[in-house]
Inverse folding.
């Protein structure tokens, strides 16, 4: 369905919700809706990205299907979010990767892994299947520059695409750009995002994977998110060691980069497997199939990246290290290459929506 | 008899053994029925609950509710101040004009003090006072997510406690011999079943969705009524009990009805079809004539009489007419206003006589007196020399676009019920209680709320008497 039709359907549903308001205690969406009467496309995109799909409103809704009013807010908002990610990504031609996201993410990851493996085979055949040990072991398989320069370029590219998307999202959902620099709103939004406040459903948790209330999705998501941050911290510390302290990887098991990376990797594996299993069992009625596929692709890639990273750690003193390093870096490359064209985008737009929500609730 | 196969998309299929008598049979599936089933299960009884609606629409009118009134000594996380017994009783006396049974009413009020804890122990979650709840935040608890969320919690709790539930199980007949309940006959899944039980708790609501029954009192006008709640409240069990000599209570002609949008679905439109535009303009009938003071009092105190007023107008229809000045001053409603650049055009869209509508509006405008318009107080904008008058918020209707909402009576519940005692036992015409027949909820609420309306009090009666009925039923079945 094109965006204009999705927005029209969401507007039909919001008109019903706005004359009911029973769900206002669950999350930020309904209080934000209550201060509105008309829903332009930008407003609806904002509300859709404020929704964390906890699904509490769906099961509580007296007008949910098969009622003739057919209210299904989590589903229509997920559809709009999927469209949002595509619309705000850049360039437009790559934004189409959101259309068949699972396939695209899979193919790009396989391609990047294959490319790295082929390059290693072609250029460093000796290092690939022999045991490498001691400082600089990794770089004997893949040279330092070949690792760092593409990684930096990809990271900068991701940042640029997301910054552009965030700017356009903000412009389309709020004409007032001055609001961006409001420390209080940033603090509130950051607290809500880091605590996953809106997966708490007003204290009872999500109706996820089914109608029962549960906090399990929130905890798994925390493992994924904080696991990711630990891995990011591990990489950063390693970079500092390398550039400023002259200490080159691999680092000993009890060193800071390895400890952070291990904790992060284990958390990520548990978190992604947990979320995938919840999604597998989840009620499809309030779901948007397109978003579900996007979720699965991203979680699989994130989980496999962590798993290969952990395997690399365990087997780094064996002849398997070379191949594992190539595969792990292939997954990392796939993860970051597809970042602006996959579920990772939810961090950007949800965070922007949370900031805007903090701003407008402070005004009310 | 034998076994009954139930399909439950949450709990899976279950085989219910009906070859031996059930301890407690609960008929109905809303708030009162669930409270009864849960308490009976606490009392050690083997409980079967027959819900007439399909699973998706379970919960009767409770699925459309929002809040529950209860007595409490002070503010909590969820209510903003105390609500003592005497104030509660005064409120009830005022709305019922004395049509209540004091001992049962006081019993309900006192027992309601326990509801906060009990409901939470059984899975219900409350919402902190927010914008939409403020007008009742001191006296009433608001369910997080509303009535359907509460009902979902109760069904989950009942399931955990071993209560067996059959959906789409419509009871047609109660077999009662010498005032003693024997068995119930019901349709389920295309078959006819009979289940014996030691005790029956009837908690299956009123008869407001039974149009032929309403026609006995209202004639063909009943065809134009909109039923705000479930279409399954057909009053079958109420009729059965009355036929077996249960003593009735409440005026059968009366119902609680509000003004709803005429475009609302016939059943189950719930909260979103009500309209709050009336005090901001005028209301005319099919003849384009006004028929009642639109500004008599604050709308929350008056909206409940408008259903009855419209029910007595020709064709049971009315039109709330406002102009551009009123836009955004009342809660948005689910259907868009009918809009026109002129009154003549509006009359055309509403199929009203344009000349008469113009004359009605002109007469109203002429009669308005200058004042300070203030929706938050009983202001001094009123008409003079107009019949019927508009006592407050009367300002000329003169600024296009002109907007209209068609209105019909939206029936919430009926008052007719069966008499019960303090143990929720049904009282027979000879004044003696039936041995093993209990009633709870709307089917007996007329004992306490014989007239009028008190927000959130229907659920209070249902919860208190549901619990009493369940407890007493289990005791009777065990003993």
């Amino acid at each position: 369905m094109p965006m204009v039709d999705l927005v029209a359907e969401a507007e039909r549903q919001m008109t019903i919700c706005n004359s009911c308001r029973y769900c206002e205690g669950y999350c930020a969406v309904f209080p934000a809706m209550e201060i509105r009467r008309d829903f332009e496309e930008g407003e609806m995109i904002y509300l859709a990205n404020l929704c964390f799909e906890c699904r509490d409103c769906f099961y509580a809704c007296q007008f949910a299907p098969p009622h003739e009013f057919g209210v299904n807010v989590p589903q229509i908002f997920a559809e709009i979010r999927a469209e949002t990610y595509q619309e705000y990504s850049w360039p437009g031609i790559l934004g189409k990767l959101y259309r068949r996201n699972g396939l695209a993410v899979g193919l790009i990851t396989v391609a990047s892994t294959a490319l790295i493996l082929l390059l290693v085979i072609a250029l460093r055949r000796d290092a690939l299947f022999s045991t490498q040990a001691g400082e600089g072991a990794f770089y004997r398989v893949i040279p330092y520059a070949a690792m760092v320069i593409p990684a930096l370029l990809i990271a900068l590219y991701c940042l640029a695409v997301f910054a552009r998307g965030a700017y356009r999202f903000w412009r389309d959902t709020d004409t007032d750009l001055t609001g961006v620099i409001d420390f209080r709103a940033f603090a509130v939004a950051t607290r809500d995002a880091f605590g996953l406040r809106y997966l708490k459903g007003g204290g009872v948790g999500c109706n996820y994977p089914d109608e029962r209330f549960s906090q399990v999705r929130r905890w798994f998501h925390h493992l994924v998110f904080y696991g990711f941050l630990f891995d990011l911290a591990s990489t950063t510390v390693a970079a500092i060691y390398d550039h400023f302290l002259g200490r080159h990887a691999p680092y000993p098991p009890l060193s800071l980069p390895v400890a952070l990376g291990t904790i992060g990797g284990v958390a990520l594996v548990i978190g992604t497997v947990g979320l995938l299993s919840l999604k597998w069992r989840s009620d499809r009625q309030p779901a948007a199939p397109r978003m579900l596929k996007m979720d699965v692709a991203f979680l699989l890639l994130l989980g496999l990246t962590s798993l290969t990273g952990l395997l690399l750690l365990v087997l780094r003193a064996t002849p398997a290290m070379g191949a594992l390093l190539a595969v792990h870096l292939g997954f990392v490359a796939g993860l970051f290459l597809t970042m602006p064209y996959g579920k990772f985008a939810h961090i950007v737009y949800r965070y922007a929506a949370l900031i805007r929500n903090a701003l407008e609730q402070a005004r009310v | 008899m034998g076994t009954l196969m139930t399909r439950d998309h949450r709990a899976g299929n279950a085989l219910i053994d009906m070859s031996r008598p059930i301890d407690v049979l609960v008929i109905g599936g809303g708030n009162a029925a669930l409270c009864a089933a849960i308490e009976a299960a606490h009392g050690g009884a083997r409980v079967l609950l027959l819900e007439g609606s399909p699973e998706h629409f379970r919960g009767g009118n409770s699925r459309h509710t929002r809040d529950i009134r209860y007595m409490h000594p002070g503010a909590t996380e969820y209510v903003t101040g105390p609500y003592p017994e005497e104030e509660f009783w005064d409120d009830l006396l005022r709305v019922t004009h004395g049509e209540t049974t004091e001992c049962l009413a006081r019993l309900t009020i006192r027992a309601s003090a326990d509801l906060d804890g009990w409901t939470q122990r059984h899975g219900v979650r409350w919402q902190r006072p927010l914008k939409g709840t403020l007008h009742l935040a001191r006296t009433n608890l608001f369910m997080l997510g509303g009535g359907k969320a509460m009902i979902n919690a109760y069904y989950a709790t009942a399931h955990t406690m071993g209560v067996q539930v059959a959906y789409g199980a419509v009871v047609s007949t109660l077999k009662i011999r010498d005032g003693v309940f024997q068995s119930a006959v019901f349709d389920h899944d295309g078959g006819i079943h009979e289940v014996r039980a030691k005790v029956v708790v009837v908690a299956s609501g009123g008869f407001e969705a039974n149009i032929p029954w309403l026609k006995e009192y209202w004639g063909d006008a009943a065809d134009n009524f909109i039923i705000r709640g479930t279409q399954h409240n057909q009053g079958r069990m109420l009729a059965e009990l009355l036929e077996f000599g249960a003593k009735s209570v409440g005026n059968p002609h009366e119902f609680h009805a509000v003004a709803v949008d005429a475009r609302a679905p016939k059943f189950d439109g719930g909260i979103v079809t009500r309209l709050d535009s009336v005090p901001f303009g005028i209301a005319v009938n099919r003849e384009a004539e006004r028929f009642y003071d639109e500004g008599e009092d604050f709308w929350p105190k008056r909206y409940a009489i408008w259903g009855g007023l419209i029910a007595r107008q020709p064709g049971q229809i009315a039109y709330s007419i406002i102009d551009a000045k009123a836009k955004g001053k009342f809660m948005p409603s689910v259907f868009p206003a009918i809009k026109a650049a002129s009154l003549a055009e509006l009359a055309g869209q509403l199929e009203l006589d344009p000349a008469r509508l113009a004359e009605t509006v002109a007469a109203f405008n002429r009669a308005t007196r200058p004042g300070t318009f203030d929706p938050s107080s009983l202001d001094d904008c009123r008409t003079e020399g107009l019949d019927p008058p508009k006592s407050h918020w009367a300002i000329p209707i003169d600024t296009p676009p002109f907007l209209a909402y068609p209105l019909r009576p939206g029936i919430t519940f009926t008052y007719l019920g069966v008499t019960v005692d303090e143990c929720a036992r049904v009282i027979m015409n000879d004044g003696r209680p039936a041995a093993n027949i209990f009633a709870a909820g709307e089917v007996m609420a007329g004992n306490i709320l014989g007239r009028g309306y008190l927000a959130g009090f229907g659920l209070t009666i249902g919860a208190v008497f549901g619990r009493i009925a369940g407890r007493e039923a289990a005791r009777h079945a065990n003993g």
About this structure: Residues 92-363 of chain A form one domain.
